[in-house]
């Protein structure tokens, strides 16, 4: 059966996350509705590269679709975009090898978290307005504690009980753009709520409420404190899913594409 790779962007504020749920609106559910309407079939398989939680956005989610159809992918993409809600858009669709797997072939995933220093009309759904002044230099000074292969058991939980909580973070950098603070994180994979707890912990450092010693302690022994610092989902964006042969971007997509956000 032919397999197609889809790259998708979405505004997650209206959805209960990526993963299909029978009783709730999800991004995957809306895509499934579009597939059925365009292809007029009920037999197909759709797999995402990873799950995003309720309220989390994506600039480059990846999925693969197995469907028995001769419809050219550019035609199918155009037709699905016509029936999808405005909050979901397929950026690219291409035929790939039947051996390609959106999730298991992914080498790295990158996220961007958007913090606003000021009250903004877009704050509730698209960023986190931190009212207190943040010491970004202090936040940047502790980022090296998060990189490398570390046990992130204090920052999140695996999808399945008993799975490893070891995660390799390849890149973590903080950018300041006008009234925005962008936290760019690239890793092999991520535990449930891990990125939001990392961001929340960094914010606590920026507020002067946590020290480098505290960060070290979170990795040396299990702590429930990072869970209390979990950043809201509104500021989190799945930026890119990397596959073999792709080089990791050292700056967030927003900075690369438009210079500032």
Features:
Alpha-Beta Plaits, ten-stranded mixed β-sheet, about 260 residues, alpha+beta, 2 domains, 8 helices, single chain
Question: What does it look like?
Answer:
With 261 residues, this protein is an alpha+beta fold. 25% of the residues lie in helices and 28% in strands. It is built from eight helices and ten strands. Strands 1, 2, 3, 4, 5, 6, 7, 8, 9 and 10 form a ten-stranded mixed beta sheet that branches. The longest helix has 13 residues, at 27-39. The radius of gyration is 19 Å and the shape is globular. The termini are far apart. The model has no long low-confidence stretch (mean pLDDT 93).
Order of helical and strand elements: EHEEHEEHEHEEEHHHEH
Q: Distance between termini?
A: 42 Å
Question: For this structure, what is the CATH homologous superfamily of the largest domain?
Answer: Pseudouridine synthase I, catalytic domain, C-terminal subdomain
CATH architecture of the largest domain: 2-Layer Sandwich
List segments where confidence is low: pLDDT < 50 over at least 5 consecutive residues: none
The strand count comes to 10
Question: How does the helix and strand content classify structurally?
Answer: alpha+beta
What's the CATH first level of the largest domain?
Alpha Beta
The overall average pLDDT, rounded, is 93
Q: Indicate how many domains the architecture comprises.
A: 2
Report the major sheet. 10 strands, mixed
Number of helices: 8
Q: What is the 3D shape?
A: globular
Q: What is the helical fraction, as a range of percent?
A: 25-40%
Q: Roughly what fraction of the amino acids lie in strands? A: 25-35%
The rounded Rg comes to 19 Å
Task: Kindly identify the CATH topology of the largest domain.
Answer: Alpha-Beta Plaits
